[in-house]
Amino acid sequence: MSDTQLPPDNNTAPNGAVPPGPLLLNLQYTKDLSFEVPGAPEIFATLREQPRIDLALDVQARPLQQGGNVYEVELQIRADAQAPAPNGTTQPAFIAELSYCGIFTLNVEPNLVEPLLLVECPRLLFPFARNILADVTRDGGFPPVMLSPIDFVALWQSRRGQGDAQFQGGAPVPPVASA
Predict the structure, then answer these.
(1) Each residue of 103-143: pLDDT tens digit?
(2) pLDDT, tens digit, for every residue of 52-99?
(3) What is its main location (predicted)?
(4) How many Å is the maximal CA-CA distance in the chain?
(5) How far from 83 is each of 37, 91, 143, 176, CA to CA, in Å?
(6) d(CA 27, CA 101)
(7) For the whole model, what pTM was predicted?
(8) Domains of the chain by start residue, with CATH
(9) End-to-end CA distance of the chain
């Protein structure tokens, strides 16, 4: 063994502890999940083509403690599927609503909190929410809804352009294809 000292690691605190990162995902969970088939069982007998799916997406963030750095970020997704009815009109095929949340700790400058909460946090939650939505629609008897990737930067910029500084609000999502 050698008696030479290694240079200090820039990623450790003076007491040898590892400092927390700028963004820490503490917990993620399904806060609410709803799946309805209003026209069941008849819809399954009359459905002859892929239903048209309208999606809405909303991101909300709120602090969990006054003046703290721990936040709940909520990704809300609603999918309304409309199918052609035998009489030439449309009928609801299904309605799926998902509220998927994460508890995040942020250790950043105050000017970075909003973009982290409304861009990076939902980006981390999205793959899990996407999977839940695909599973619930498939398990409900329909082709799984496969959401395309979401540009959370564009949604955040759109929200900032509307002057919403409350970390609340949403934006419609373009229709996606089911597979």
Answers:
(1) 999 999 989 999 999 999 999 999 999 999 999 999 999 99
(2) 999 999 999 999 987 789 999 999 999 999 988 878 788 899 999 999
(3) cytoplasm
(4) 87
(5) 12, 5, 13, 15
(6) 8
(7) 0.77
(8) 23-153 (3.10.420.10)
(9) 61
